[in-house]
Design goal:
The protein is 67% helix and 12% strand. It has five helices and two strands; from the N terminus they run H-H-H-H-E-E-H.
């Protein structure tokens, strides 16, 4: 999951989905929020980790030769917005 959400195509898709909720959100804000998830991940309780994975993963297909994971970009946009709010709160404190 950590590697997937840092992929440029995921960041762009998340930014596009996020603009539907907040037209003022920038690609840089989305990128920063998603990158902030990596160090935060280990601090989360397992139940919160599972909630985030359910929010982000639409479908997983496993075959003998491959693994395919379909992400919910709208879920990523919501997660990015939440992380951005947390970062703003930390900066203000």
């Amino acid at each position: 999951m950590r590697i997937l959400i840092r992929a440029p195509e995921i960041i762009i898709a998340t930014w596009k989905a996020g603009r539907e909720h907040d037209a003022g959100i920038s690609e840089g804000e989305v990128r920063a929020a998603l990158l902030d998830l990596d160090p935060l991940w280990n601090e989360l309780f397992p139940a919160e980790q599972a909630r985030i994975v359910q929010l982000l993963v639409e479908r997983v297909d496993v075959t003998m030769d491959s693994l395919s994971i379909r992400l919910r970009t709208e879920g990523l946009a919501g997660l990015a917005a939440d992380l951005n709010q947390r970062q703003d709160a930390r900066s203000a404190a």
